[in-house]
Specification:
By secondary structure, this protein is α/β, with parallel strands linked by helices. The chain folds into two domains: 126 residues, YqgF/RNase H-like domain (Nucleotidyltransferase, domain 5), CATH 3.30.420; 125 residues. Strands 3-2-1-4-5 form a five-stranded mixed sheet. α7 runs antiparallel to α9 and α9 crosses α11. The longest helix has 33 residues.
Length: 265
């Protein structure tokens, strides 16, 4: 064992300090422009020199191979498309990943770098210059909760579109029912009209509502295991779904230095 190594092992504070300096000196900054079938990657050093760039497949193997030579690095990816799949791969590799707001990134790039095209190279420049407009990611559980909430919102939107088509079909035929047609009694009324297009829409609507019910059961499980959501639900007028949505959007409340910043967010 060398004297230097012996010294560092016996003086862990010095060891950690020197390790941190080494990481900072050797820090690499990678911008990833993500597409469905491939990514365009640009790797830079602290001075903005391009170390390498090129196209890589969006497969786990290709991404792991590209980053295998990056001992200490930060990566910037835009919050569009399949970013969550890419993020999971990079996170496992121990890289610091910044999720970028694409709209704000274009504005910053236009002001600072004189271009409104945000590609891999621009992402790398913004990253090393500490100009990334970061989007909060949250832990895996919160990301899954957000996905589930968004899925429910989409299903509700589809359901409302079906209901609007049914209303339009009735109006087209001069039928103006004096009741809520989307209750059990209303459904019986609609089926009794024997209009094939409406009956088909009702079958699709029933399927959508079953999926919404299934999602609600999953969300209820999240709620029963989320103390923050349960606390939010004690506010008058806030149900479990609204409480879960707030908890998912806020994430770690400690990231807000004041209640004003939280309200602004």
């Amino acid at each position: 064992m060398t004297a230097w190594l012996q010294f560092l092992l016996e003086n862990r504070k010095v060891y950690h300090a020197m390790s941190k300096i080494y990481q900072e000196v050797n820090m690499k900054y990678v911008g990833l422009d993500i597409h469905k079938e491939f990514c365009v990657a640009t790797e830079m050093d602290e001075e903005g020199n391009i170390i390498r760039d090129g196209r890589i497949e969006t497969s786990r193997e290709a991404i792991e191979e590209f980053f295998s030579s990056v001992e200490s690095g930060k990566v910037a990816i835009e919050s569009t498309g399949i970013w969550d799949y890419i993020y999971e791969i990079l996170d496992v590799l121990g890289l610091e990943v910044k999720l970028v707001n694409p709209v704000k990134a274009r504005a910053i790039a236009a002001a600072k770098i004189k271009t409104d095209k945000v590609d891999a190279t621009i992402l790398a420049h913004l990253l090393r210059s500490n100009l990334i407009p970061e989007v909060y990611i949250g832990n895996r559980e919160m990301r899954e909760l957000k996905r589930l909430i968004n899925e429910r919102l989409l299903m509700k939107k589809i359901g409302n579109q079906i209901k609007n088509r049914i209303r339009s079909e009735l109006l087209r035929r001069g039928i103006r029912p004096e009741m809520n047609i989307f209750t059990k009694k209303g459904e019986q009324y609609l089926r009794a009209l024997r209009i094939n297009s409406i009956i088909r829409e009702l079958r699709v609507l029933e399927s959508v509502e079953k999926e919404i019910h299934s999602i609600d059961e999953e969300l209820l499980e999240y709620y029963e295991n989320n103390e923050d959501a349960q606390l939010l639900a004690t506010i008058p007028g806030v149900g479990y779904y609204t409480a879960l949505t707030l908890a998912a959007v806020i994430g770690d409340i400690n990231r807000f230095p004041s209640s004003e910043r939280l309200s602004s967010y």
